[in-house]
Amino acid sequence: MNKEFNKYETLNFYPLSPNKKRYSEGGLRINSEFKKSLPNKPLITIITVVLNGEKYLQETIDSIKNQTYKNYEFIVIDGGSTDKTLEIIKNNSNLIDYWVSEKDEGLYDAFNKGLNLARGDYIGIINSDDTYENDALHILTKYIAKNTNIDFIFGSVKKHWGILHGYKPEKIHYSWGFYSSHSTGFFIKNSSAKRLGFYNLKYRYHADYDYFYRMIVKKKMSGVATQKNEIFGNFRRGGFSSRVPWIKLLKDEITIRYDNGQNIFLIIFLVLYKLGFKILDLLKKIFTFTK
Asked: How big is the CA angle at 178 (ends 64 and 239), to the nearest 5 degrees?
């Protein structure tokens, strides 16, 4: 069985690989400071992965520091940045429980490292150019207290064109519209994450979709969504997937659907459907340009 689907144990520090150069590590755990859950105050793990993110990283860190709910731990996984990212991380070491800087195998490999290091009751991921609203974790813990048997929570997220909100598990088969956002909006119970396993590194661009498919369809995990006005964070334009050619994204999605056992005729229909929209968009641009 591939590593991605193995159960994993929680680590306090990420072990040094003989095949990778480690630049440095730090944080509160290095000084034997470990946070824990308190009565009626679950520990929340926040993971940020970054590579050359000096432009917005401090904003992300500040949004975590400004949370009204304080029982959280903050993990930063740096992929070996060559700009001022590492300097920003070191300047905020008193706010970071553990950080490590070394080469990795991409975004989802970094996510897996973060999962390995999470000691909290719930785990959330925020990209290094996104931000939380100040009451995000406060709202989250209210839902945790009211829904003790669920596996995950989706919070509303502001995007450049509006607010993403809601949880529609039936749409996992047909579109991406069943959740608000992977960054800032999604939190999963630590014990449920261990049952689900790692992100599958086979999928370079849409491993989060595979993660959610396994979570909802294969493992039949349950979740809730916040109200539209209960906003967790802000998703900045120009993220990872927006920089990937759409044909590569489509190829990854087709592979994920096929590997997870979707009906081949449904896959063909969805591919033709998406291609149709792409052709229409292209024709609109051509006619607009020629006017």
From this structure: 45
